[in-house]
Structure formats: C-alpha cells, structure tokens
Amino acid sequence: MAQKACRLIHTIPAVSEEASGPSYSVVRLCGSLIDQNCDITLVTLSNGLMAGQKMNFLKVFPSGLGPQRLGRSPLMRAWLESEGRNGMLRLIHNHSIWMMPNVYPGWVAKKYKVPYVVSPRGAFSEWAMASGSRIKSIFWPLMQRPSLEAVTCWHATAESEYRDIRRLGFRQPVAVIPNGVDIPEMPEKDESQNHTLLFLGRIHPKKGLDMLLPAWKAIQDRFPSWRLRIVGPDNSGYLIKMHRFASDLGLQRVEFYGPLYGKDKWTAYRNADLFILPSYSENFGMAVAEALASGLPAIVSKGAPWEGLGARNAGRWIDNNIDALIGCLEELMSCNSETLDKMGQRGRMWMEQEYSWDKIGQKMAETYQYLLNGGQLPPWVMED
C-alpha cells in the first residue's frame, strides 16, 4: 500500500506465548503488513510476553462477565463500534472463530459496510467441527454463523482450508495465502547428543501422539542411537495420558519437555536430526515451516497441508496410520547425516523462496487493496 490512508483492524481472542500457533502467525502477519505501510491495530483480550515481537500495534481489552470460554468483552465491542462510527475504519480482518471477539467484528463490519476478512485458522476442518463441545453446537447457529454472513473474503492458509470453507456452504471469495516463517540463523549444531527425532507442538489429541508412540515402540530397538524428544505445552491434561501411555508401552529414550519459546525453541530445532508431525488435522502446521526453515527434514501426515515435502525431497508426506509412520521413520532414520542435511537444506531454501514474511505480507496487502479499490483479481484469490 502506497500510503497509510485508513485503519485496518485485526482481531484475535488471545496473544500469548502459551496460546496456539495463531498467536505467533497473526502477530508476525501484522508486523509484515506494517512493513508494507499498512496502518494496523491488532485487537485482543489477552497479551502474554511474545519473545522478540514488536507489540506497539496491540490493543488489549479485558474480558467481561460471563463464561470465560466465550470471551465476552463489552469494552472491545464498544471500541470497534466507535471505530466504525468515526469513519476511519476501512477493513476488519478476524482470526479464528468460536469466541465473542470473533463475532463482534462481523456485527461491526455489517453495520458500517466495511470489507470483512475472516481466517478460520483450522476451525473449519472436519476434525475440528466434529470434536466440538455442547457450547459450540449452541454458539454456531446463534452467534457465529450469522456473523460470518458479513464476510467479504475468506483467508485460507492452504487449499485444504479453502475446501473446508466451501464444504460449509460459504461462497464468498477465498484468498489462499500461507503463513510466513522466520528464517533463523544457523548456529553450529550440538553433535554430542544422540540423534534426535523431534516433535514440537501442543500436547493435544489431534497431534497424533497416539500413533507416534506405538510407532516408536516398533522401531526403538533398531535405532539405539536415536531418541524421541516431545516438546510442547500440555492441553487439558493430555500430557499425563501420554506419559502413562509411554510407560505402558515400555518405551525407551523418550523425553517429554514443556514448551520452549524464542531462542530455546530454535535451538531445539537446530539440534534435532528429523522433525515429526503425525497430526490428524492442521490448517497449516506452523511447526513444520519452522523446522524446515531451521534446515530440518520433516515427516508430516496428510492431516496437514504439506504435500510439497516429497516433491522437493525435503521430507515425506505420509498417510495417517501407524504402518505408514513406521515405514517412513525406518527409511529416514536409516539415512546418514549427510543425506538428512541435504534434505534439510532443500527445505530451508523452499521456505526462503516462498514463505518469507515479506512475501506473505505483500500478498495480503494486495488482497486488501483489491477488496478496498477493486481492479484485477489477485491470482491467489479463488472465486469458484
């Protein structure tokens, strides 16, 4: 965008180190849009420390009375309304669904007739919709679905998410733009440790640990120089279940860690030899991009949209079952370090060429320009 002529508001329920992937990717998207000379305000209910992030564009509101799960905030709603009334608000971009901060923007966009972009952030996947709570079944028809009728354009981080949007009956245009990823420096690797298979992500049922642990059981005796390192925050006590599962299976060389952030997270990637994400459902899979950017080859299930791994020989994209996982682990863990390093180098180059935040921010800014001013349809915006 050539000049800062209007305010673009982004909304997300939470921004914190402990929150899931959108906390990172939305903050970085806003930063890249500011670099494109967009006037951005990111509105949220909570703000934890985000290592290494500039947060001067953040506006935080307290939650009001009512169920914490819904994130009701009359102050946030009132502020959004005031921005609509003063005439400076030109576009709202909401991230995620299922909370009131994801409903208020639709109400305001409809009332003041401003373009409204929504990024479901994985919430529309079949897995996510099927695993909903009773609150979801009430909230969807009463609050969330009606507010989404105001959408001008959807944002999907992969074509699989575009298909999820269409499956639910929404016919508005969809901009398919992936998340970006930071490209870290490449410090010397610690070669004193055993070879490491790294899982990094939330300890959550959808992440496929119930497949990974039995697969490790099947191969652990063949690869005594390898360890499995599981890193990430616990989700609703699932970590305890996985500890018990690992113990019941009699697993060896499995290490459970808590979450790692900032420099510690990037060090974990750098000191690993192979990354694994056997997820049942991902709209993007931020940890996959981070692993590849760190020069780490990746094994990813078809629950995540990383089909390019095989074509670029930067890892493997496999079926969601234990047999496929065992076979792929045996194949890549049998490779020598030079072969794995070359795969990792190809993955890092892929991220540099197509997933830098500069490129992603430019695509999103051009999408906004199209929604605000018309003109030629950007090639990543799908109308069918």
Describe this structure in words.
This protein is an alpha/beta fold and 384 residues long. It folds into two domains: 7-180 and 356-382, Rossmann fold; 195-354, Rossmann fold. Helix content is 40%, strand content 17%. It contains 14 helices and 16 strands. The chain has an eight-stranded mixed sheet, sandwiched between helices. Helix 2 (74-85) packs parallel to helix 3 and helix 7 (209-219) crosses helix 12 (322-333). The longest helix has 18 residues, at 337-354. The two termini are 27 Å apart.
What are the SSEs and their pairings?
Elements lengths: L6 E5 L2 E2 L6 H14 L3 E6 L1 E2 L10 E3 L13 H12 L3 E7 L8 H9 L3 E4 L6 H5 L3 H15 L4 E4 L2 H9 L6 E3 L18 E6 L8 H11 L6 E6 L6 H12 L4 E4 L4 H9 L3 E4 L8 H8 L4 E4 L6 H4 L3 E4 L3 H12 L3 H18 L2 H17 L7 E2 L2
Parallel strand pairs: 1-3, 1-6, 2-4, 3-5, 6-7, 7-8, 8-9, 10-11, 10-13, 11-12, 13-14, 14-15
Antiparallel strand pairs: 9-16
Question: What are the key terms here?
Answer:
384 residues; alpha/beta; Rossmann fold; 2 domains; 8-stranded mixed beta sheet; 6-stranded parallel beta sheet; 14 helices; 16 strands
What number of domains?
A: 2
Total beta-strand segments: 16
CATH architecture of the largest domain: 3-Layer(aba) Sandwich
Overall shape: it is globular
Amino- and carboxy-terminal Cα gap: 27 Å
Mean pLDDT: 90
In the CATH hierarchy, the third-tier topology of the largest domain is known as: Rossmann fold
Q: Helical element count?
A: 14
